[in-house]
Amino acid sequence: PVNRLCATSNNQTGFLCDDRVTCIPASQVCDRISNCRNSEDEQEELCGDLPHSLPGHLVFHCSNPSVWVYADQRCNGRNDCGDCSDEMGSLASCPLCGSEWWSCSPVLYEYCSCIPRRLCRDGIQHCHSWSDEYIC
Q: H/E element holding 58?
């Protein structure tokens, strides 16, 4: 089998197309949209039994064994697993909030321990402590 592991332009886990140049984000594999020239990202042997048919580097298993997300959804700031296991803890091993993020825990809504700074002082409480509205 061909090694299809690559890093996208924003340094996320990706899938290497047959042209050996195009690297698409993991979450664009098996999304019913052909992103590779020869549609190899949508082939039956790759997409027939998700997530088992995918190469392991494209999959992140959440702490709930019945839930998985694409590898590029790990550490993206959003609660894709539903329990924040893709953003927090030893399984995900994410870096601390970056400069574009505000750290607060617990977070309300779809984020985990960081929210995008653009949500600071927007009149909507995203941090349980309201720090996104008063301190950020």
A: none
Dist. CA 76–CA 49, nearest whole Å: 25
DSSP H or E stretch at residue 92: helix 89-92
pTM summary value: 0.84
d(CA 32, CA 43): 10
Domain extents for the chain?
1-73
pLDDT in tens, 36-78: 999 999 999 999 999 999 999 999 999 999 999 999 999 998 9
Using CA atoms, how far apart are residues 31 and 117, in angstroms rounded to an integer?
Answer: 30
Among left, alpha and beta (phi > 0; psi -120 to 50; other), residue 110 is alpha
**C-alpha closest to that of 92 among 105, 78, 102:** 78
